[in-house]
Amino acid sequence: MTDRSRPSARLMDGTAPARRLTEATAAAAADLRLRTGVTPCLATVLVGEDPASVTYVRMKRARCEQAGIRSRHVPLPAGTGTSRLVDVLGELSADPAVHGILLQHPAGPDVDERAAFEAIAPAKDVDGVTTHSFAAMSFGLPGFASCTPGGIMRLLDEYQVELAGRHAVVVGRSAILGKPAGMLLLGRDATVTYCHSRTADLPSILREADVLLAAVGRPELIRGEDLKPGAVVIDAGYNPGNVGDVHFASARERAALITPVPGGVGPMTIAVLLAQTVEAAERQLGLG
Amino acid sequence: MTDRSRPSARLMDGTAPARRLTEATAAAAADLRLRTGVTPCLATVLVGEDPASVTYVRMKRARCEQAGIRSRHVPLPAGTGTSRLVDVLGELSADPAVHGILLQHPAGPDVDERAAFEAIAPAKDVDGVTTHSFAAMSFGLPGFASCTPGGIMRLLDEYQVELAGRHAVVVGRSAILGKPAGMLLLGRDATVTYCHSRTADLPSILREADVLLAAVGRPELIRGEDLKPGAVVIDAGYNPGNVGDVHFASARERAALITPVPGGVGPMTIAVLLAQTVEAAERQLGLG
């Protein structure tokens, strides 16, 4: 039974804003095609046949199609090594018909993923995985955002979450999620704390968070009792069974705003990928 | 009168470790000269005649000389624009006789300093100011550290300060001090909080800091009563009159370890610059 006296957070739905962003992207793609005859093209590179990765790539390609973006799929066999992958990414970087490049993570145990990412030309790094893009996010320079952090920032803006001067706590420090998200939040004048597996007394820090970003990939690590009442909770965890990093039911009783899993951060991530692909095409064609 | 019942922090002297590092650097430079006939060379680029900058560059060049490093000074007139500066830095980047490049900050009101920094070849970025170096520090990749953050990490190690799992608070978020220092601390498994001018209730966050890095350039902003008892306090502020960002007398009563100003971070910064110059020369000559 639900205790109706308990407050319940407003949901930060990502599907509707993602749909609006994708509609705007589709319009921009159509306009580009009209003006230049060129259809924006995203190359998707997948090493091996990990089922989750296959599904992600298929979903991203389907969304591309819906938005009037061509996708060129480059499947590589499991066990592909770094140098072969770097070559493929270098060729795509040099190919004028390709405007954006996505290397699906993880690229496999035989690959130096950092070296592979760096083989993507910054102008085509629409997934925001290169060190160039990271520095751009960190210093507020022109460049592409990592898609999940970029989607999170758009979601926060969509729900008019005030960031300046507020304490944002990022749990997780991966190169394409936690670290760049913290830098984007810092660029918006939040006070930013990075927590991770070695953090001592995580709950005491979580309780100081006006804005909490869970980005660690540990199912339901964070529970309602860890939250500051009225917090804004962004759950970017994706774990098997559509479970986030936040225990939704208990968190909802304490937060003011919370993203559902699924339907929160995920849709925004893909929408940003598409938007950045068209933006990349515009720049490469001398428009935009 | 001193109240002798009050505890007093141990000083984290930077001069002795800086001297030892510089001795090792001088030995490496001598060895390099012996093996290759080449003397490591640092190019120093100074725009205008700001007295503080003139003094800093003079001091750095004098230290180079003491360590057996050649310096090539490139003074440019006040009002030098970005494109001229970029050209000069590009030429130095291409010159095989130059192994490291230092552009003295600030480069003047007429210069896009980020564009200038990016004109420095990453292999010669011994001052750690390029986005390449920032990403290297952020992701634990090979590359040069920004000199002050690099010096701070060496000083912490020198005094065997435990970082893993401890809460490090960085006050200041500049591109070559606060931001990279936070990333280096995070890379060492500290929980890291970035504070800045927009942070609400700074004292409450300072009181949580096991390790506090003041890097904001506001004289004596931080006082002893703001500190957690037993904190390690690194004062990287440099303000007129040899005053740091920390009020030394009151902080000393509460901290366990504290850097003096001057004689703490400053000497380590220059020592790291010299060490990285010789390291750059070694790599460019195919050694090291």
From TrEMBL, chains A, B:
Keyword line: Amino-acid biosynthesis, Histidine biosynthesis, Hydrolase, Methionine biosynthesis, Multifunctional enzyme, NADP, One-carbon metabolism, Oxidoreductase, Purine biosynthesis
InterPro entries from the xrefs?
Aminoacid_DH-like_N_sf, NAD(P)-bd_dom_sf, THF_DH/CycHdrlase, THF_DH/CycHdrlase_cat_dom, THF_DH/CycHdrlase_CS, THF_DH/CycHdrlase_NAD-bd_dom
Q: Does the keyword NADP apply?
A: yes
* Pfam families in the cross-refs: THF_DHG_CYH (PF00763), THF_DHG_CYH_C (PF02882)
Show the GO cellular component annotation of the record.
cytosol
Catalytic activity line of the entry: (6R)-5,10-methenyltetrahydrofolate + H2O = (6R)-10-formyltetrahydrofolate + H(+); (6R)-5,10-methylene-5,6,7,8-tetrahydrofolate + NADP(+) = (6R)-5,10-methenyltetrahydrofolate + NADPH
Q: Name one GO biological process term.
A: purine nucleotide biosynthetic process
What is the protein's known function?
Answer: Catalyzes the oxidation of 5,10-methylenetetrahydrofolate to 5,10-methenyltetrahydrofolate and then the hydrolysis of 5,10-methenyltetrahydrofolate to 10-formyltetrahydrofolate.
In which family does this protein belong, per the annotation? Belongs to the tetrahydrofolate dehydrogenase/cyclohydrolase family.
Question: What is its quaternary makeup?
Answer: Homodimer.
Protein name (database record): Bifunctional protein FolD
Species in which this protein is naturally found: Kitasatospora setae (strain ATCC 33774 / DSM 43861 / JCM 3304 / KCC A-0304 / NBRC 14216 / KM-6054)
